[in-house]
């Protein structure tokens, strides 16, 4: 069989791309090795930039993001004994939207199904071939065990950091930029009411904690832990005590309840350049990973595919592949801004294992200058709510 664009990865990046190009009459096939259920049940971040919200609404994916999401006009930065509000609306006239990535995925999968998009979940043996030829090939076995070969005009790798596409670019044709961090996040879901109206990014002597939310009755929280932390060692009581100690240092009290999910999230920064190899284009986590602080990962993936959809339409319309270089040129500027933002939020708020008292006080000095400065706070507000479209 054939299609115009073969898309590896049916997460938000792959599905949004498929949706956007379908609006211009370009058909695609999307495959993912995970089942729809697996993707729906993997907890991810929960904050959308205002342009991500706009993209979902204006392209007809979902108005549920407005109905079921929560507008947050700011965040709390808590350190050295007190909380300080960063007022996004006053500083940059924008807000962030609390809406879980799993719901973004459900909305996109529903939209593709409603529009008759070809999306295959639960496939196996995915591989991509002939990347620099005239007709690249997408090969996979579907959920019923039937093998498929799909010839395409373009292939898109939206298959995340552990997918096959990134590595199918020959080593001599790519550069990889990588950074590790000596900590991770312990993430929980708890059946409790919100502890505060907005998110709290909490610096403390015992390490970082983030008090986020999901609904009126379900909350999402994270605390800095070792990369090899074992969730089995953490009873509900021990988790609440650790979280409460960290935020209590800055004057907050958490509302507690049964913990329904416990997972450890790795931290790393990664970029692969270029984002194009022949007729293969990389998007989202297949091309780059950010540490979770600041919730840039999903937003960056959506920004990638918004640019990619425009460039795919242009290149296929004019049958000129050279035009595709514009994708990486446009996307990488935002990628590196987001890399810096995520690195900066991370290193400003987390405690290094070997941190000296000087290191902790210096971080408090950085946070104090940030909240005391309109320029500093505005920089944070711009990055958090999302830089303008490039
Ligand atoms: C969430 C995750 C983040 O990394 C962040 O910066 C804010 C919120 C969340 O899952 O709610």
Short account of what is shown:
InterPro entries: FAD-bd, FAD/NAD-bd_sf, PheA/TfdB_FAD_monoxygenase. Helix content is 35%, strand content 25%. It has 390 residues and is α+β, with helices and mostly antiparallel strands.
Task: Describe how the helices and strands are arranged.
Blueprint: E1 5-8, H1 12-23, E2 28-31, H2 36-40, E3 47-48, H3 50-58, H4 64-67, E4 70-72, E5 74-79, E6 82-87, H5 88-92, E7 96-98, H6 101-114, E8 118-120, E9 124-129, E10 137-141, E11 147-151, E12 154-157, E13 175-180, E14 184-191, E15 200-202, E16 209-211, E17 218-225, H7 236-248, E18 259-265, E19 268-273, E20 276-277, E21 280-282, E22 288-289, H8 297-318, H9 325-349, H10 357-372, H11 374-385
Parallel strand pairs: 1-2, 1-12, 2-8, 5-15, 12-21
Antiparallel strand pairs: 3-7, 4-7, 5-6, 9-10, 10-11, 13-19, 14-17, 14-18, 15-16, 16-17, 19-22, 20-21
Helix pairs in contact: 1-6, 1-8, 8-9, 10-11
This protein binds 3,4-dihydroxybenzoic acid (DHB).
Residues 45-47, 199, 210, 212, 220, 292-295 line the site of 3,4-dihydroxybenzoic acid.
Domain FAD-binding: 2-341
GO molecular function, one term: monooxygenase activity
Protein name: p-hydroxybenzoate 3-monooxygenase
């Amino acid at each position: 069989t054939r299609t115009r664009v073969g898309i590896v990865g049916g997460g938000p990046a792959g599905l949004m791309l498929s949706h956007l190009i379908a609006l211009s009459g370009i058909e695609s096939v999307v495959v993912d090795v995970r089942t729809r259920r697996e993707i729906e049940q993997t907890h991810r971040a929960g904050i959308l930039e205002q342009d991500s919200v706009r993209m979902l609404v204006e392209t007809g994916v979902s108005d549920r993001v407005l109905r079921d999401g929560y507008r947050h006009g700011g965040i709390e930065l808590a350190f050295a004994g007190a909380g300080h509000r960063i007022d996004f609306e006053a500083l940059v006239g924008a807000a962030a939207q609390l809406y879980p990535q799993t719901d973004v995925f459900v909305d996109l999968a529903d939209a593709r199904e409603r529009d008759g998009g070809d999306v295959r979940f639960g496939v196996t043996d995915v591989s991509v071939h002939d990347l620099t030829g005239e007709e690249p090939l997408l090969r996979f076995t579907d959920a019923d065990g039937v093998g498929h070969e799909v010839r395409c005009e373009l292939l898109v790798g939206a298959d995340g950091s552990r997918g096959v596409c990134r590595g199918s670019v020959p080593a001599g044709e790519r550069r990889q930029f990588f950074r590790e961090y000596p900590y991770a996040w312990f993430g929980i879901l708890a059946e409790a009411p919100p502890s505060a109206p907005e998110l709290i990014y909490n610096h403390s002597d015992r390490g970082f904690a983030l008090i986020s939310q999901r609904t009126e009755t379900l909350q999402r929280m994270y605390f800095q832990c070792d990369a090899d932390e074992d969730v089995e060692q953490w009873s509900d009581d021990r988790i609440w005590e650790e979280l409460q100690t960290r935020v209590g240092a800055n004057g907050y009290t958490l509302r507690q309840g049964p913990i329904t999910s416990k997972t450890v999230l790795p931290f790393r920064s990664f970029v692969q350049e270029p984002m194009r190899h022949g007729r293969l284009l990389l998007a989202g986590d297949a091309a780059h990973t950010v540490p979770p602080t600041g919730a840039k990962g999903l937003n960056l993936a959506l920004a990638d595919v918004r640019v990619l959809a425009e460039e795919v339409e242009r290149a296929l319309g004019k049958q000129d592949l050279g035009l595709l270089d514009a994708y990486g040129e446009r996307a990488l500027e935002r990628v590196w801004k987001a890399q810096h933002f995520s690195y900066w939020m991370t290193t400003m708020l987390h405690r290094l294992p070997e941190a000296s008292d000087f290191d902790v006080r210096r971080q408090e000095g950085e946070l104090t200058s940030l909240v005391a400065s309109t320029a500093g706070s505005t920089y944070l507000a711009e990055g958090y709510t999302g830089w303008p479209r490039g």
